[in-house]
Amino acid sequence: MSRFFRPALLVTAVLALLGFGITPSNAATAISVSTAISRQDGSVASVTGYVVGQPTATTTVVRSNFPNDYALALADSASQTSTSAMLYVQIPAEFRASYGLQSNPSLLGRQITVTGSLTAYFSHPGLKNATAFTGGGSSDPGDPGDYYAGAEGKTGAALKSALHTIISSQTKLTYDQVWDALKVTDQDPSNSSNVIEIYSGRSISKSLNGGDADDWNREHVWAKSHGDFGTATGPGTDIHHLRPEDVTVNSARGNLDFDNGGTSVAQCSGCTADSDSFAPRAAVRGDVARMIFYMAVRYEGDDGFANLELNNSVGNGTAPYIGKLSVLKAWAAADPPDAFEKNRNEVIYSQFQHNRNPFIDHPEWVASIWP
Fold first, then answer.
1. Distance CA 255, CA 304 (A)
2. Over the stretch 151-160, which tens digit does the pLDDT of each residue have?
3. pTM of structure
4. Whole-number Å distance between alpha carbons of 71 and 160
5. Which residues make Cβ contacts (< 8 Å) with residue 163, sequence separation at least 6?
6. Are 239 and 173 in contact (CB under 8 A)?
7. Cα diameter, the chain
8. Which DSSP letter does residue 273 get?
9. E strand spans, the chain
10. Is 153 helix (H, G, I), strand (E, B) or coil?
């Protein structure tokens, strides 16, 4: 036999002629996004990562209002915001209906695997000529994929710390932008021209936002004086705890802590208040509690604002505390997340701040952090 004859090569050639493709060895095992970024040599590979947005330019990745289904960005973390740590994936026409973000915005934050050539796209490390897309997880708003991967297996203080890191990766709004955001996050499911007021439950026209009697304005569920953050960009504009509310009811709540008891509040059926506490209608008491829990985890004093914490007191005034912890825990247990609250969390994540309230996704974490 000639020393130039190679049986294996002959088999490969015959299989190729018969239409049987040979998978390159580097595509056999999926690689990370960081590895794919460093290996921009045109080789074929399968890359596993989290969908973090749509690239529209070399240094621009959008996370809402997706212009088309032509591309997506992958990262090794669902909360990644640095474009330098992202891989830009070109989506061939045959995969756009299933993996384009304009058609499938719920893919944001989900883990997928893509096979293709490691080639620059938008003059940025990328993957082109894709031949396969898999994964994507559930489109259920209550299933955020692997967003909480960094919190898996943790409890107590370690869980709180991990969640703080995860949810601190967010897009911050100005106080003016909050008006428009609330018209989307709190839209009345039965009337797209209205929003639902958090405490009163009243459906009111989106256009009636302002400061006059019977208008709705921006209620800080974690009263802004409890930490002295005002309306500064940060806790003062975080829409996870900002909600539409009637001007008069908002004033009646003021900066009161939360507790049971008191007398009826005008224009707020089911609400009660006394000199040092306020209670909303029963249908949203759990919602209020989970917003408070979110704020206590998100703002830990490491970003120039006060360390917001819960205690078991009322009458906290201007201290960076809110109570009553035992009551809020009971409210959360009695009123679990409903469809409106879950949808609101998803809209904030996908369209505005790009972070989530973990206690809507995982109500059981309340007892782990505050036993």
1. 22
2. 988 999 999 9
3. 0.66
4. 35
5. 148, 151, 297, 358, 365
6. yes
7. 100
8. E
9. 44-57, 60-62, 71-75, 87-90, 111-117, 126-135, 187-188, 191-196, 203-205, 216-220, 242-246, 257-258, 263-265, 268-273, 277-279, 309-310, 321-322
10. coil
